[in-house]
Amino acid sequence: MPRTTAHPTPSRAVLRLTIALTIALILGVVALAVFSQRLLAGPTAGSGQGWPLAGIDPAGAPATGSGAVSEALSEADGLLPETATVFDEHYPAVGHLNTSLLEALQSAAHSAATEGIEFNVNSGWRTPALQRHMQEEAVAQYGSVEEAARWVASPETSAHVSGDAVDIGPFDGSYWLQNYGAQYGLCQVYANESWHFEFRAEAPSDGCPLMYENPTMDPAMQG
Predict the structure, then answer these.
(1) 3-state secondary structure the chain
(2) 53-57, 81-85, 100-104: lowest mean pLDDT where?
(3) pLDDT at 45
(4) Strands 186-188 and 196-199, how do they pair?
(5) What is the pTM of this model?
(6) Cα 23 → chain centroid
């Protein structure tokens, strides 16, 4: 009769260790995937990511809340509460936006609302004084006008000062616009600013133009 060899049964301790390691590996993979998605999408409102700059929201978009800038500036300069939406036209930062941009934002917001998504306006129209303050803060942080220009334009060139740009949050809002904004003429203009949108009339039929790496690559910023 052939001999049979008994195989040792793994102990409970070994089984528990194997299960624990497997769970830890799965959680690590999930965490890495989430982090990678957020990193590729850029800084997002409410995510806690962004650059540590006074006058710049750590969530990503330039902050224009009451605690972000000099006491000499006010809502009349474009400051906004955190809860401002694209329908709050009584705030100058919203009401002074280009008409086509604002109408497109409100139309898109109605569509997004059916999916439970709201657009908050982190920043919209700004006075030259507010834009100058933000530029000076950026220069102080980055050490030069050239480096700061990757994030904050001058008052002379900023699309915010002309009312042609808006910074949208939270993450779900800006992400929705990245995917569907072109249908409404709303385009992300800069690859490093996932929250910054401008109106492009040709986008519904032709799609949004290719994004610039950052504002310094935009010919409109060379003034």
Answers:
(1) CCCCCCCCCCCHHHHHHHHHHHHHHHHHHHHHHHHHHHHHHCCCCCCCCCCCCCCECCCCCECCCCCCCCCCCCHHHCCCCCCCECCCCCCHHHHCCCHHHHHHHHHHHHHHHCCCCCCEEEECCCCHHHHHHHHHHHHHHHCCHHHHCCCCCCCCCCCCCCCCEEEEECHHHHHHHHHHHHHHCEEECECCCCCEEEECCCHHHHCCCCCECCHHHCHHHCC
(2) 53-57
(3) 30
(4) antiparallel
(5) 0.72
(6) 33
